[in-house]
Design brief:
Layout: E1 7-11, H1 16-29, E2 32-39, H2 49-56, E3 60-65, H3 67-81, H4 96-111, E4 115-117, H5 126-137, E5 142-144, H6 157-166, E6 180-183, E7 188-191, E8 221-228, E9 231-235, E10 238-239, H7 242-255, E11 260-266, E12 272-278, H8 280-296, H9 299-317, H10 324-336, E13 342-349, E14 352-359, H11 367-370, H12 382-390, H13 392-403, H14 415-420
Parallel strand pairs: 1-2, 1-4, 2-3, 4-5
Antiparallel strand pairs: 6-7, 7-12, 8-9, 8-13, 9-10, 11-12, 13-14
Helix pairs in contact: 1-6, 4-5, 7-8, 9-10
Length: about 425
């Protein structure tokens, strides 16, 4: 660290890493440490956090309840965009980081701090998400990343536990339970420990938010989710605020073993990592939203949206929430969602979310168009001209080959097959 700071705001979870960082910052750099915690739905993890932070040496702990903002400003926009990273990851940790950074910067400015700090390792994605967000929000603030600091000698969770014991820092991690976890209202992630071997089957005792599908109820539970302009507004016909609705979906999803994902993903920094995610309510909500879009969006818009969803997921995963491109895609998504209003009926059963119905006052689906019976609206003979035009490039290509004394390029011999034979 080339500059000496006086007051630092630390993104504080109360977990092992951030707990030992408090005394380390004080001991190493002589700074005042203010801990900041974003309440994103960690539940009981917040119990006793203030006493714990102060016992670690912090001058104060500031907690902000950001659950509603988390849903409306980060979760729902990502869901409306249809963003899913590498086919399975619903980005539960990724879009939490820019929100934490946003308020951490606000706290730093209010408290007169000249730097912020985080407990992310030099191997992970979160260091990028935090720091790129801070750079976008207030680049004048210094950033301290202990895991990349030459003075930091803690290189493993075992080292961190030993450091905590030496400095009498209260921590809950043990060598026996060594998982690295991140929990918020949307999901819970599990990494490290036995999961570092991707062949290892996760222990059932590891899961927190979801019941095992095998032990889930044997009875199907049917629910109905209502949307207005792509945002969920009611459950089973009862209007609900976002927080109430999502917590209920989490309860239902957890009960039925929904939302478990075992994934090897490509980290931003270039390496692969193995993690297990629990996203009960989010999995249900994504499925319902996708289903409603299927009757409310036209083909061209839906297909373009699917392509942009990949870019949106990449931006969120890479920590580029505060970017012109992400805001621009949001503008596109906002237009696509104008007519995504209606209801979706779902059956929840042993880890499955089964669609059983969808309806919308703005549906583009017309039963009279889709029917295979006789109709006046659609003349089946019209399809002949369409086919001739649609297949014209292929026809021209084949005719050129025939006129040259050859055959259609799609009837050329498969020399690899001939060689094998």
């Amino acid at each position: 660290m080339s500059q000496q700071y006086k007051k630092v705001v630390l993104a504080y979870s109360g977990g092992l890493d951030t707990s030992v960082i408090v005394p380390w910052l004080i001991e190493t750099y002589g700074v005042e440490v203010i801990c900041f915690t974003a309440d994103l739905g960690q539940g009981e993890e917040l119990d006793g956090l203030e006493a714990k932070a102060k016992a670690s040496g912090a001058s104060k702990l500031i907690i902000r309840d950001l659950r509603q903002e988390f849903l409306t400003d980060f979760v729902f926009p990502t869901m409306r965009a249809g963003a899913i990273y590498e086919r399975e990851y619903l980005l539960g940790t990724s879009f939490a980081r820019p929100l934490i950074a946003l308020h951490m910067v606000d706290v730093a400015e209010a408290e007169g701090a000249d730097a912020v700090a985080h407990g992310c390792t030099g191997k992970g994605n979160d260091q990028v998400r935090f720091e790129v967000s801070v750079m976008a929000l207030n680049p004048k603030l210094g950033i301290i990343a202990p895991w990349r600091d030459d003075k930091w000698t803690i290189r493993s969770r075992e080292d961190a536990i030993a450091y905590a014991e030496k400095h009498k820092v209260p921590v809950s991690a043990t060598l026996k339970s060594i998982y690295s976890r991140d929990r918020n209202l949307f999901h819970m992630s599990h990494e490290g420990g036995p999961l570092e071997n991707p062949w290892t089957k996760p222990e059932e005792s590891m899961f927190v938010l979801t019941t095992s599908p095998q032990n889930a109820p044997d009875q199907v539970e049917t629910i109905e989710i209502s949307f207005e302009a792509g945002c969920p507004t009611a459950l089973n016909g009862t209007p609900m605020e976002p927080l109430e609705l999502f917590m209920k979906l989490n309860e239902l999803g957890g009960k039925h073993g929904i939302g478990r994902v075992d994934l090897v993903e490509n980290r931003l920094v270039g390496m692969k990592s193995h993690g297990v995610y629990e996203t009960p309510g989010g999995t249900i909500l994504y499925k319902a939203h996708q289903t409603l879009e299927s009757i409310c969006l036209d083909k061209a818009t839906l297909h373009q949206k699917l392509q942009l969803a990949l870019k949106y997921a990449e931006l969120v995963y890479n920590g580029q929430w505060f970017s012109t491109l992400r805001e621009s895609i949001d503008a596109f998504v906002d237009v696509t969602q104008r007519n995504v209003t209606g209801d979706v009926r779902l059956d929840l059963y042993k880890g499955n979310v089964i669609v059983t119905g969808r309806r919308s006052p703005k549906s583009l689906y017309r039963e009279d168009y889709a029917s295979f019976g006789q109709m006046d609206i659609y003349n089946q003979k019209d399809a002949e001209g369409f086919i001739h035009l649609f297949g014209l490039p292929n026809k021209v290509e084949a005719l050129l080959a025939l006129d040259g004394g050859g055959v259609s390029p799609y009837r050329q011999p498969d020399y690899n097959k001939i060689k094998r034979d």
